[in-house]
């Protein structure tokens, strides 16, 4: 079992007290977000889903960063979070967009078990867990696909784009490699009927974090309504 900074007898793992910005970001679901932070910093680290030194960075590096994806999402639709792992970014998205149908896709048993426990513990009725590889899911069955630290964009696109309905959108959380990955993926995206691909820098003054997101739209159909940084449909 990985080592952990969490004291096993402590009622609340250190680093999980909700920061000031969390109330603005999660609103009436703040208690659920706080419970999720506690699960990440406790069982999530104990089971190796997060590194042993991540307890103090659960809110900013993980929950806050993931919550930023919701800035580009519509209020409704069906979303697959592939390679969901510890539930990032899927669970923060589900908390911020409670009318979205969120499917956490995770092939590994220990991770999918953790996700199921989290969903049950938080009472997330808009979230389901599917233990499966993304490429095995029914094609053209989602309006949106998200991913964080799953695979380089060329490979990720091959898993994600076939899952999207016409006009659907892939939102991939990336870091400094976003531009290089997008250029490398251009030919793959063309073969997979991607209509446009852009890099979005998303910030939230309350959170004090920023995120680099590659947004890829699939050709055809009615355009999936996503929201831009100004809150307007894009």
UniProtKB/TrEMBL annotation:
Gene3D superfamilies named among the record's database cross-references: Vaccinia Virus protein VP39
Major location (coarse): cytoplasm
Subcellular location: Cytoplasm
Entry keyword set: Cytoplasm, Methyltransferase, rRNA processing, S-adenosyl-L-methionine, Transferase
Signal sequence range: none
Pfam families associated with the record: GidB
Positions annotated to bind S-adenosyl-L-methionine: 83, 88, 134-135, 148
InterPro entries per the UniProt record, alphabetical: rRNA_ssu_MeTfrase_G, SAM-dependent_MTases_sf
Enzyme category, top tier: transferase
Entry EC number(s): 2.1.1.-
NCBIfam families given in the database record: rsmG_gidB (TIGR00138)
PANTHER family: S-ADENOSYL-L-METHIONINE-DEPENDENT METHYLTRANSFERASES SUPERFAMILY PROTEIN (PTHR31760:SF0)
Function: Specifically methylates the N7 position of a guanine in 16S rRNA.
Family indicated by similarity: Belongs to the methyltransferase superfamily. RNA methyltransferase RsmG family.
Descriptive protein name: Ribosomal RNA small subunit methyltransferase G
Source species: Motilibacter deserti
